[in-house]
Design brief:
- The protein is 35% helix and 26% strand.
- By secondary structure, it is α+β, with helices and mostly antiparallel strands.
- The protein folds into 2 domains: 261 residues, Zn peptidases (Aminopeptidase), CATH 3.40.630; 112 residues, Alpha-Beta Plaits (2-Layer Sandwich).
- The longest helix has 23 residues.
- The termini are close together.
């Protein structure tokens, strides 16, 4: 089935205000990783109101709609994540002015989530039948310490049947064709501590944690041509008071790379630093809080095909050719399993991961036209 451009634009005109209302309502539902329950129920109810049958919420809080998947061994996963980076207590005020929406999480990934939901509505209304099934997923736990829990669950349940994945999680002037792996740790340092005057000279957990952090920032990252490797310490906490030699301090840190060999080199560097910091007076406990794998054994031709179709559709609809990039997304999981996957954009936004996040409201209409056209072309 080729896309009916006139029919799609008529659909968008008809559903324009409803789509904007859905975006506003979703933006005002707090959804930190692991706490997406309310958004999941909202998305399930909305899909069912569109006429979707067989929608369910799985144990990972994914909202799953198998569309034509019953007998198919060639499923395409199309997903957008429901979680945001903001704690539940973050004030959520939705302000629309001069066509720009401002609200934490309005773009990443609520904008793409709304686009996917209305692409589903369009397919249901037109009776689009894909070549192979589509597994539409409003998935949980993409952000930060969510550690891709939602998509991992999809591959546990459907792994042997999935042919490709198209993740919606970006602006439509970019497409991500490669993935960045990461390893994340919570490091806890302990010492005997004591009184700042009476026990002066005793090991201080805050100071020992600072030494470890300093050594991390002395790492000479691998410089393999065509790759990028990084590290970061994101948070630090500990101590009791100004006159107390701290007994405990903790910090969160990570390393990232788009190359598995570089990831292994960084693992050895981090292990060395943690090991050298331990002594009979200094305890160092390292807890792994997140692993995102790199790509392995993927067919580059299929990834390029998926990207080429998207770029052509974007050029036609938006007048711009998307830039191809690499990032850490839900696509890390399929790419690590050798399954072709791309992360495509579906909106125009900015201020990502800040409380000043914004989105151009009409980009949701353009994004829905683009993604609907793209999926029809890929799956016709």
């Amino acid at each position: 089935m080729s896309i009916d451009v006139f029919g799609l634009r008529t659909f968008l005109d008809k559903n324009r205000e409803e789509l904007f209302r859905t975006h506003r309502e979703l933006c005002l539902i707090p959804a930190p990783s692991y706490c997406e329950d309310e958004r999941a129920i909202y998305c399930k109810n909305l899909l069912e109101s569109f006429g979707a049958r067989g929608v369910y919420i799985d144990d990972a809080k994914n909202v799953v709609f198998p569309y034509g998947c019953k007998d198919s061994r060639r499923i395409t996963v199309v997903n957008a994540h429901t979680d945001t980076v903001f704690p539940a207590e973050t004030p959520l005020e939705y302000v629309e002015e001069n066509g720009v929406v401002r609200c934490p999480g309005s773009g990443d990934d609520t904008g793409c989530l709304v686009v996917m939901l209305y692409a589903v509505k369009y397919f249901l209304e037109t009776g689009f039948r894909p070549d192979g099934g589509i597994l539409f997923v409003c998935n949980s736990c993409e952000e930060g310490l969510g550690n891709l829990k939602g998509i991992r669950k999809i591959y546990e349940d459907y792994g042997g049947r999935i042919a490709r994945q198209i993740s919606l999680d970006a602006d439509y002037n970019e497409i991500f064709t490669g993935c960045v792996g990461s390893a994340r740790f919570e490091v806890t340092v302990t010492t005997a501590g004591g009184h700042s005057f009476g026990d002066f000279g005793s090991e201080n957990a805050v100071a020992e944690a600072a030494k470890i952090i300093s050594r991390i920032y002395e790492i000479d990252v691998p410089r393999k041509p065509g790759t990028k490797t990084t590290y970061n310490v994101g948070t630090i906490s500990g101590g009791t008071s100004v006159n107390v030699i701290a007994q405990k301090a903790s910090f969160l840190c990570e390393y990232r790379s788009d190359d598995p060999d570089c990831m292994e080199l960084m693992r050895k560097e981090f292990d060395r630093i943690f090991g050298q910091a331990r002594s009979d007076k200094v305890g160092v406990e390292v807890k792994t809080v997140g692993i995102r794998p790199c790509a392995k054994g993927v067919c580059a031709d299929e990834i390029n095909r998926l990207a080429d179709i998207y770029c052509k559709a974007a050029q036609t609809i938006t007048g711009e050719t998307p830039v191809r990039k690499t990032a850490s997304t839900d696509c890390n999981i399929p790419l690590s399993l050798g399954i072709p996957a791309v992360c495509a954009g579906a909106m125009l936004s900015g201020g990502t991961h800040t409380t000043e996040e914004w989105l151009i409201r009409d980009s949701l209409i353009t994004g829905t036209e683009l993604i609907s056209s793209y999926l029809c072309e890929v799956l016709a």
